[in-house]
Amino acid sequence: MEQEKRGSFSGKIGFVLSTAGASVGLGNIWRFPYLCAKYGGGIFLIVYVLLALTFGYTMIVAETAIGRATNKSPVGAFRGLSHNNKLMKLGGWINAIIPILIVPYYSVIGGWVCKYLFEYIRGDVNAIAGENFFTSFITDGAETELWFIVFAILVLVVIYLGVENGIERVSKIVMPILVLLALVICVYSVTRPGAISGVKYLFIPNFKHFSIMTVVTAMGQMFYSLSIAMGILITFGSYVKKEVSIEESTKQVEIFDTAIAVIASLMIIPAVFAFSGGDESMLKAGPSLMFITMPKIFASMGFGRVIGIAFFALVLFAAVTSAIALTESAVSTFSDEFKWDRHRGVNIMAVIMLVLGSLSSLGYGPLANVKIIGMQFLDFFDFLTNSIMMPIAALAICVLITKFMTVEKLEAEVEQENHPFKRKGVFRFMIKFLCPLFVVIILVSAVLNVFGIISM
Asked: What CATH architecture does domain 16-450 belong to?
């Protein structure tokens, strides 16, 4: 009966677009360009693509196959495959809790995007580009809270509608629009005077910029960009029908995801070069690149307001699809573990989002003096989930497959309905040896970085 009640995607297109929607979020459009810029442009891109084709590919196949084989969200999947092993059950819960902790602070940043889109629609591009616009906004607790709630409501409404009517339908509409908008802004950006220097910086590798941190940062970015070890891919895998080829779908998600990351970089990096007269130091703006540097660039353009609206609409679409996936993973866990119906699960998630999200929302304003290991709430939740919990969750997935499920059973799941598993050799080597090594390196690097022992 569980099989019949569980939601499912209508087919491969629904799964690919929904998974791509989960993957293509602020990680690609905001985080990827500034990390790519900071860690050497072309050389970072090469390292990232190589990792996506090996590490990323392996983890997407693994998580999707675990979900489909068990027809469960992370906790149930880990419990079933490990025959109730206590350590593996903990691994399942870590996978399940990650999205519950990410979506509140992610929704705060989504609220910032809503605010900027609203201001571009109604306002003055020069005011938005002003020195103190962003700072005065995020320190105003009432306004950040309002926009955070607006974004959270957008996400929760889609989750209420379910898998096929909500997530899949929204993804099928939003993802093509997102690609179209990205291409329009990209063409506009690369045709600005001086922008060609940014294109060269992005695509021509300079080996002087290479360091071990290029590899570590690219590995960390993989978790953001491909939604690895967040419980999402296991949950979405449980909605995938047996006739859908997991390997083929993974390839399409990888291509879609990497293409959007490159297009986002082409929107931002050449525009920064054009705006700054080729000043590479402008690229080091980091997270403020989207909210401070880009508005300055739009203010200097002829169609600044139009491009600003298109840019922040694109970022909003990407943020919403990712937040939907994170919330769906949490709601699916509630349904499987506590037998709550969808509406109750969404209501509980709404309360969690409001409580934890408000801490992050108010963390730069009224709660600015409250810090955890020297970090504001938003930065702390980001560090806890992405630098600590996700590498542990990924390691748990590797152990689950190699020690409990067995690589052979996972391969058999991928090969169902006579689907070929072309990169079986790569998968086997990665899941047994390199993936566990990679996630340990990410975990250790992140911890050493936060305590100032190494600089990332």
From this structure: Orthogonal Bundle (1.10)
